[in-house]
Write a structure and sequence with these properties.
By secondary structure, the protein is of the alpha+beta class. The protein is built from five helices and eight strands; from the N terminus they run ααββββαββαββα.
Length: 177
């Protein structure tokens, strides 16, 4: 009889716990999906090593870049990634070749790293806002990752992994012509 008295309250307690979980799940399903996600459409600022800032806002799949008059190639990288190092080696040449029509911006995906690199002729963005930008760009997960935007901020192409210079240059030519 004592065992029966213990088992019945235990089943009743489990039933309430399961109902509570179901109720919480139903509440979450009723909320609009946009409320469950971070607002990656909010304006943000990338701070660059050259002292400049880039003010941006996501617009659908594209980005508004304040005061931008050139195509922009954002290169997401880390200092310890070997394919990133290989990719970064030829980007200064592309920046020089397309200087009037293209802006290359490195996006350092590391906390607390010194973003200055004297071998580069383009600025590097670092800090907390780069992680926000990576999520807004589509949850950048593989590195190196490059995002090419037109002068108007239209998303032209994305590249994940090491990209041959010839292929990247062909896409840049399409963007700037």
């Amino acid at each position: 009889m004592k065992i029966k008295n213990l088992i019945i309250p235990l089943f009743v307690a489990l039933a309430f716990v399961a109902c509570e979980d179901k109720d919480e799940k139903e509440e979450l399903e009723e909320q609009p999906q946009a409320e469950l996600k971070a607002n990656y459409d909010a304006p943000f600022t990338l701070s660059l090593t050259n002292g400049e800032s880039i003010f941006m806002k996501k617009r659908g799949e594209d980005f508004e870049i304040e005061g931008n008059g050139r195509a922009t190639l954002f290169v997401f990288f880390t200092t310890w990634c070997q394919p990133c190092k290989a990719q970064m080696a030829y980007l200064p040449d592309l920046q020089t070749k397309f200087e009037k029509d293209l802006r290359v911006v490195g996006v350092l995906m590391e906390d607390g790293e010194d973003a200055n690199n004297s071998n580069l002729n383009f600025p590097i963005a670092s800090g907390e806002s780069v992680f926000f930008f990576a999520k807004a760009a589509g949850d950048v997960s593989g590195l190196p990752y490059m995002l090419l935007l037109s002068a108007e901020g239209e998303r032209l192409c994305d590249f994940e992994g090491l990209m041959p210079i010839e292929m990247l240059e062909a896409e840049i030519k399409k963007a700037v012509l």
